[in-house]
C-alpha cells in the first residue's frame, strides 16, 4: 500500500468519528460511488437509506461482499461502520446519525461518515460534525480516489474509465481489457459490452436482478416505471444524468426481452468466454498484489 493511502487509513484507526465529504452536485445521487473505495480500505459494514439499495418492486441487491445494516436496527459493535447520508436524511427523516455518533465515541470502532457537505451537522448539534473534538476530518472523496489512482499505478494497473470514480466499475473495465485485449474508456461503453462478458463481477449483479423467481432463466422488468427505477439505482452509483441512466437501463432490459438466457447464471457458466477468463487469471500474481488477488478471485469465481 502506498504511503498516501496508508496515511488516510490511519485516520480511520485513530478517530472515534471520521468525516469524508464527496462534493457531488446533488446529494440524492452519486454518493454510493465511494463505497467500493472504502470497502477496499477494509470497511466491511455500511448503512445508507434502504431505498438506495433496492428497487421498489424487488429485493435489495448490490455489488461487493459488504455487510449492510438498516440504520434504525444497528446495535453497538466494535467494528468500523460507514454511514453514507446527506443533509436531507439527517434533518427531514427519522434516520439521523446522532445516536450512532454518541455510541461510537464510547466504542472501539470508528464511525466513518460520508456526506455531501462539509457543513453536515447531526440533528441537535451546535457545529458541523468535523469540528467536534472527537472527529477527524479525513478530507474529500476526491483525495481518496487520487490515493487509489497512485495505488493502482504502483501495482501496474490503471483506472481507464474517464467518467466515473466508482472503483468497482474501474475494476470491471480492467478485467474486460485483460480478457479481451480491448479497452473501454467510459462507464456507458462498459455496459455496452457487459452482456457478452459473463466473467465480469458486474454481470453477476444483473443475474440477481433479472432472475425469475423459483424458475430457470431470466425475465425483463415489467414496466417503464420499473426500468426508470433501475435508472435511479444507477445514478446513486455512477456519475450519469437521468437520460443516460434510463437509457442504459432500457438497453439492458431489451437485451433480456430479446434473449431469455441473458444474465442467466446457468448459461453464463457455459459461455466460452469463461474459459478465456480462467486462462488470463493464471497470469495474475494471486498473492503478490492485492489488486491481482481480487481480480484472480473474480475471474475464477464463475467456474467454481
- Count of all domains: 2
What is the number of strand segments?
Answer: 6
User: What is the CA-based Rg, rounded?
Assistant: 20 Å
How big a fraction of the residues is strand? 5-15%
Tally of contiguous helical segments: 13
Largest sheet: 6 strands, parallel
* Distance linking N and C termini: 29 Å
Average pLDDT for all residues:
93
Low-confidence stretches: none
Task: Describe, in plain words, how this protein is organized in 3D.
With 304 residues, this protein is an alpha/beta fold. The protein is globular. The protein folds into two domains: 3-146, Rossmann fold (3-Layer(aba) Sandwich); 157-301, no CATH class. It has helices at residues 3-14, 35-40, 87-92, 98-104, 141-154, 167-180, 187-194, 201-210, 224-237, 242-258, 265-268, 272-281, 290-301, and strands at 17-21, 45-47, 67-68, 81-84, 111-115, 135-140. It has a six-stranded parallel sheet with strand order 3-2-4-5-1-6, with helices on both faces.
List keywords for this structure.
single chain; 304 residues; Rossmann fold; 2 domains; six-stranded parallel sheet; 6 strands; 44% helix
